[in-house]
UniProtKB/TrEMBL annotation:
It comes from Tetraselmis sp. GSL018. Its main location: membrane. One of its GO terms (molecular function) is glucuronosyltransferase activity. It is found in: Membrane. The chain crosses the membrane at residues 179-201. This is Glycosyltransferase-like isoform cra_a. Pfam families: Glyco_transf_49.
Amino acid sequence: MERRGRGALQIAIVVETVALVELSQASIRYPVNALRNVALAEARTDLVLLLDVDFILSSSASRNFSLDSRLQQMYRSCCLNKEILVLPAFQARSCETALASAQADKFEVVKLFEDGTIEQFAKREFDKGHRATNYERWKQARSEYALQYEEGFEPFVVAARALIPWYNPIFRGYGRNKVIHIFHCAAFGMAFYALADAWVIHSPHEPSAAFKATFGKGEEREIKLFENIMSLYNESKSEILASPAAASAAYGLHVAPGWWRRRDLLGGWMGMEGKEVPKTLRGTTDLVQRRFLRNLHEHKFSFRQPKLRRILHLESGSVYGQDVGPTLCTTLTADRLSRLLLQVRYF
């Protein structure tokens, strides 16, 4: 996109000071959601693309994101109608297949999907994560179509920077960190629509240390880590259902000073307050239960609010052909630079 004069690469390098006894846990409990908040705060465009660093954007999406008419349509959907645009996510068995699928047209991708060369991302491990995208409908779709949110949904999306809630920064490492964020979006009453002409595909890699600690086998797995993450997830649900706007404001306060650049409108948008909470979003608000959950993760977690410090900010240029975007917001640890190079190459 830089070659077309429509963007610039920004990299914020941040560090977190941890106690010596925590060093062995650093790769397991890296502050993933706090880093996502930094990326959101650094974005300058109206639209943001929230995408993990190990996914490649389809060439069709990259082309469409460069068309002013398409961007204006996305702006109306996200910024005026408070919609979230979902990119169907696929996975392949090899990096070569992933790259080919990203550069193929939709007809070819549908054929690869039907013959099993690629498949819905994480279908076997966590079907609910992307099931609501409705891949069978996507195969035939020629335009955006509405999706029915279900709890567990964690798609990769284009959204309005000023309306998307902040991520809950207390989530670290692997597990439920994106699920709770999309739950938060649904609690605000945001509508989900699938893009018919764009997709992302996972570039295969070895499981991370955080994944192994959460879902691994034998000595790799940390006892009760997933159970503790779920207690944190349930507590966060209660906070969000009590007041989506207040929860987002609280999460945003932990973004380091000087990074609060976005025009945040959530404080004036009451979301679900005064309305009946949808059945799919109902959770416990019982005070005793909430105190129990809070005590549980205070005693069992080494999760805590991250305190990040920016040590370097790199920007390759200052050319912005338009203010709409979308800005690709992604985060990574130092050992994943090769994934970033692959991702930005095709954006």
